[in-house]
Amino acid sequence: MPENTSFLPIYNASSEQNSEYIRQMLPLMMQHNVPVDPLNYAVWYHYVAGTNADLNKAIDTLIRDQKSFDSDISLNLYKTHICNASVESFEKINSHLQRLISQTTLSVNATSEKASAAGDNFKDKLKELKSAQNEANLKSILIEIILETTQLAEASKVLKNKLENTNKEMEQLRNELTQVRVVANTDGLTGLLNRLAFDKALGELIENATTKNVCLAILDLDHFKRINDSFGHLVGDKVIKYFASLMKKHAAKYHYVARYGGEEMAIIMPDTVLTEAFNLIEQIRRALDKSNLKHKNDTETIGKVTVSAGIASLKAVDTAYTFTDRADKALYRAKETGRNRVVTENALYP
Description:
- With 350 residues, the protein is an alpha+beta fold.
- It is built from eleven helices and seven strands.
- It has three domains: 83 residues, no CATH class; 99 residues; 150 residues, Alpha-Beta Plaits, CATH 3.30.70.
- The chain is elongated.
């Protein structure tokens, strides 16, 4: 799966996964007359991988409306859904940073030239002082030295102010950069981590040999298509947002809560044994089960909304793929055995 590093995604799917994605995406791209270039490859890779629900929705809408996938549309899909619009933000910050560097360099160089010229002048004046014939001549030389020193001090003051202003602007840029990183890692609808940030966090935890007792839960709203078909996507989005709020409410601060894709959510739980993970996810399931969600003006009910979940515990030999695969299979068993339940990989807590 792709993970996010700085602004652009990198990919760590297995060879088997990549082969399957290619097998699916190339016929689709040919069917819709999409050129097989690197940018389009990335867009349709994400589409068939199913890692970005908003991207899939956008492409499905374009297909439904019979729009052509020209270069402008493809670039917009890439910037909006794969890089979360951080390309433009990064380019703006980079441009501002280059301007600051250029202006500061000019100021430093100008001050350096003045200091060098002043040093040469001081040497000349020192020679003149040694050979001064009278008091008037000596006074004139001293006045010139004082003026030169004053000008140099003024240049140093200007440079200092310039550097202070530059430092303030750099701090502002650092804050903007932090915000861009937050945007790049956040799902726009729910405020949870997005799939790219989830994959990155999971990969780092697996690589960290000191991390113990890591559990992963994947949760999926039951019969969510019925909600979208009956009430529309706007209501469906509200249900997803409410579900996400329950996840954030019950999860610990050190947990990684993410929108895994569409109506699927996931929680990575470091320092958590399987029984603790089960109890946490069961709390979320019960909270949603007891909710009475309304549609319009608090009068029309949406009906019972439930969730199924699967949990796996990290093993020493796990990769990101094997770990998520076991959690996904546990989720599948929860769906198979009646939904609205939490199932662990070893089925001790049906």
